[in-house]
Write a structure and sequence with these properties.
Distance between the termini: 53 Å
Number of helices: 10
Strand content: 15-25%
Radius of gyration: 32 Å
Shape: globular
Helix content: 10-25%
Oligomer: single chain
Largest sheet: 7 strands, parallel
Order of helices and strands: EEHEEEEEHEHHEEEHEHEEHHEEEHEHEE
Structural class: alpha/beta
């Protein structure tokens, strides 16, 4: 045991080896046998402690007494103005402005003998924006395609535009807003389970139109979470103060809070769905609800509403805010497929993601994944890109799209990504490895030096 005292010790410190012993005590009026510290040694320790210093009285300071001031004439009481709600979005979001940008002139492109090219925004130059802190690059195939000129102008704090988000990250906010300003062509009818979506006539009283989504395919280190926060902040400052952030792990809520706070938000504005009991109403007027794909796929129990129903009830059927599917590849295999060993059932996480999108047709959906476009079956959840059933692409159904692209291999998948970028629906930037050097270190295998033998 170590005792730390404010009084400097004198002499040799006392060292005791305190053990435990059995003792008999009364618990609820009954004798009980419990473990206790050795009482004799504890008493020896208390006797060895130095006495406390006596408190010294402090003399009161003399206070100068001023002569009484002459009485003032009574003033008429002024009426206090009634407090009015502030129109300012908050002390942390000052100088909220529209993002200004201008068109970049078309420059002749030259094909280089490399796989990647240094990334620069190809269509817009954002006023006051700063370059990304590290060099970004994109594949030559994507670099050869220019996105369309957008018209959407986000609403963001001035300091976010001037450095809290880089130019490439602001470009994502612009193009996501541009996509969310459009709707998929065609009208659809969704059944009560939100599983079946069928094309219908615009005159059908139950017909709905889905808002177009957007795909962010940036690699690690590009700041995908910061870009999600930027999109949510843009909508928040326009009055859409409810949002849903879906990710792979509940531990990633700390990353979401970090990115939200970095743009001036408050971490208390992000709530974990797990803090609300299953089947209960979410009592929040505004905020960002964070949940995981595993939680989203949970079914109802004991006649209580499922997590999906709990979310949709809080957001409302007319919800038009942001739903961000972070690590969206976790929804891969959203439809059943024929494999070498028979039919592979659709993943429950993918089905839950589709149901959420079908239940909220006006939501601003963002798919975020660095590997989302690596396998065509993993795009089955991206129903808001308009890859099928819309006329933008020649595929009447999701299954037709998957079978056609799978037969074309990697080259066909690359064409899909190029077409999506040409429509302004897809960006995929990565941290450049320019200037990185490495050495290959060869370690010889010497079994005699190993502390154990490898069985043959």
């Amino acid at each position: 045991m170590t005792v730390i005292d404010k009084i400097a010790p004198t002499g040799t410190p006392l060292t005791l080896d305190l053990g435990t012993e059995w003792a008999i005590t009364q618990i609820d009026g009954k004798p009980a046998k419990v473990r206790s510290l050795e009482l004799a040694k504890v008493a020896q320790l208390l006797r060895a402690l130095p006495p406390r210093s006596a408190l010294q009285p402090v003399a009161p300071k003399a206070v100068a007494v001023s002569p009484p001031a002459p009485p003032k004439a009574a003033q008429p009481k002024r009426s206090q103005p009634t407090p009015q709600p502030s129109a300012d979005p908050g002390p942390c979001w000052d100088e909220v402005v529209e993002v200004e940008y201008e068109e970049v002139a078309t420059s002749p492109t030259s094909v280089k003998a490399s796989l990647y090219e240094v990334y620069q925004p190809q269509r817009i130059a954002i006023k006051g924006a700063q370059p990304h802190p590290t060099t970004l690059c994109e594949s030559v195939a994507l670099a050869s395609v220019r996105p369309p000129l957008p018209r959407y102008r986000p609403t963001l704090p001035q300091r976010v535009i001037e450095g809290l988000l880089s130019e490439a990250q602001l470009e994502s906010v612009v193009y996501a807003g541009e996509a969310h300003s459009q709707r998929l062509s065609g009208f659809y009818k969704v059944d009560e389970t939100f599983d079946d979506v069928a094309v219908c006539s615009s005159s059908d009283p139950e017909a709905v139109q889905f808002r177009r989504g957007w795909f962010l395919g940036d690699g690690t280190g590009s700041g995908k979470g910061r870009q999600i926060a930027g999109m949510m902040l843009d909508n928040w400052l326009q009055g859409r103060t409810r949002a849903l952030w879906v990710s792979k792990s509940d531990k990633l809520i700390e990353d979401a809070r970090r990115d939200w706070v970095a743009l001036g938000g408050d971490e208390s504005q992000i709530y974990a769905l797990s803090t609300f009991k299953l089947g209960t109403e979410i009592q929040l007027n505004e905020g960002i609800l964070f949940t995981t794909y595993a939680t989203l796929r949970g079914s109802s129990r004991q006649d209580k509403k499922s997590r999906l129903e709990q979310i949709t009830d809080w957001l409302g059927s007319d919800f038009s805010g942001v739903i961000a599917f972070d690590e969206a590849h976790a929804m891969g295999n959203a439809i059943a497929q024929e494999g070498t060993r028979g039919t592979q059932a659709a993943s429950q996480q993918g089905l839950a993601g589709l149901r959420l999108q079908n239940a909220l047709p006006d939501a601003r959906v963002v798919y975020v994944s660095a590997t989302g476009a690596s396998k065509v079956s993993n795009l089955a959840y991206a129903s808001r890109l308009g890859l099928w059933q819309t006329g933008d692409f020649p595929f009447p159904a999701r299954t037709d799209f998957i079978s056609a692209i799978e037969s074309g291999g990697v080259a066909a998948m690359e064409v899909v990504c190029r077409d999506l970028k040409a429509l302004g629906l897809y960006f995929a930037r990565n941290i450049s490895f320019e200037g990185v050097e490495y050495d290959a270190l060869e370690v010889p295998y010497l079994p005699t030096r190993l502390p154990f033998t490898i069985p043959s």
